[in-house]
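Example record for the data management plan.
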Amino acid sequence: MRPQARTKPDDTRARIVETADVLFRRLGFAKTAVADIAAELQMSPANVYRFFPSKTAIVQAICQRCLSEVEENAWAIARSKAPASQRIERLVLEILAYHKENLLTDQRVNDIVLIALEQNWDEILAHKETLRTAMELILRDGIEAGEFEPADPREASHAIMRSLVGFCHPVLVAQSLQDGNDVEAEARASVRFLLQAITPRR
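Corresponding structural encoding:
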């Protein structure tokens, strides 16, 4: 009989994260215990703890995976060849769409996001900086092309991201949706208003 292939640690970590994600969506974060995740995987809780020290650490891994998807899309937009003004609008709308479609369609998933934001994990802070840096790249391109007024792109990116936080922060997006707002139309209008401030007068 051939010996059973050993599972690589990274594969086991990935299986734990995938299974936890499914259970969190089905049962909710509070009602899901590490023992539930272990049982679903047919392993002991002690084995899960070998890879993750706590349930919160598993949530961090889930959030990191979600944030990576957003960041990949952000960089693809930032590095595209479209005019800078179009890239800024696409970037904001892409972030907004992700939160609407992948995080806010299920309240239990939104609960996980709230935990991450309340904990102010390093991953969340790094994610915000990544999106700001993508915005800075677009601004640099726009300034060099004469599409935008000369300005410090780093400072401008901070100001723009702060101004657009209502469309990039999942909790604020959720509140707008609950209020019945047309969030996408509001995002487009806000981006147009901000672009007017940095576009040269012809």
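Summary line stored alongside the record: Residues 1-5 have pLDDT under 50 and may be disordered.
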